[in-house]
Amino acid sequence: MSVHGQVKVRTSAEQKAARERERAEKLQFYLGEYEKILNNRQTNDSLDLLKSTETILSEHPDCFTLWNIRREAILKIDNDKQKDYFEKELHVTQKCLQSNPKSYSCWFQRQWCLKQLKERFQVDLYQNELQLCKKYLEHDERNFHCWAYRYYLLERVCPSTSSSSSSDLESFYDKELDFLRSIIGINLSNYSAWHYRSKYLDKLLEHNPSRRLSLLAIEWQLVLSAVYTDCSDQAAWFYLRWLLFKQLGNEAISEDEHIKPLEELDEIDPNNKWCMLALCQLWKEKKMKEEKRKTYLEQLANEIDRDRAEFYREQI
After folding, report:
1. 103, 60 in Cβ contact below 8 A?
2. Rounded to whole angstroms, how far apart are CA atoms 282 and 265?
3. pLDDT tens by residue, 79-105
4. pTM listed for this prediction
């Protein structure tokens, strides 16, 4: 038997019991140390607090209270030494991310350190941090915590509209769209890559509306290729519907360019709910094939996707 592509290894009752004992011992130690830290929060030396909290966080990086205590402790350190401790904290968070790359608290702590270094000491590490993101996304390209952190960084390294030329900003957006396209090429199911692509496409279109028609034509070919490659992948379908109904709009939707390719895909892969749903919405917007639209919605409700039957019936 396999779970998520991994073979499930059967264990004996003894092995299971040994693991449970080990977990119970670790939990007992963790709770004891955690209580000591809370009791000594106001009286302990900052360096002692940093040392004791690091011991626990290296194994349990999701405890936001301990990260709060670390922030308090660092801010109490003499100003002439704070810079070193902010930089040390970046090493601590990197070590903790190795334990759990999807720790909300850990990514936030890293963000806080960068902000403090920038505001207090004019040390700008945002560009360097993008390399760390690249490393983590190579390990797991769908780590949305890392994607959110990367977006935070990009917003801070993005050329300023007041101090940079228009071409610099446009080049920045184009470069990011190229990066996102490369990630999507590796894994079409990467929701985060599609999501942030929509954000930066929005920014580029707002910055240079004259490129709207050419950019949307390129995006349409990209997402059309994606759904033809894997018709069952819902990430691309969400982007396709966003592109059609939020960017192009009813007037710009063309029967030959946008509807017919999906009707052909529907013939190649019948009963695909994502394709059927997109076509139903397109037919409704363009006021065409009303009977077929109703038939598709009835099929979706009664046969293909019964869990969402009411959603489809409301559209008939």
Report:
1. no
2. 14
3. 899 999 999 999 999 999 999 999 999
4. 0.83
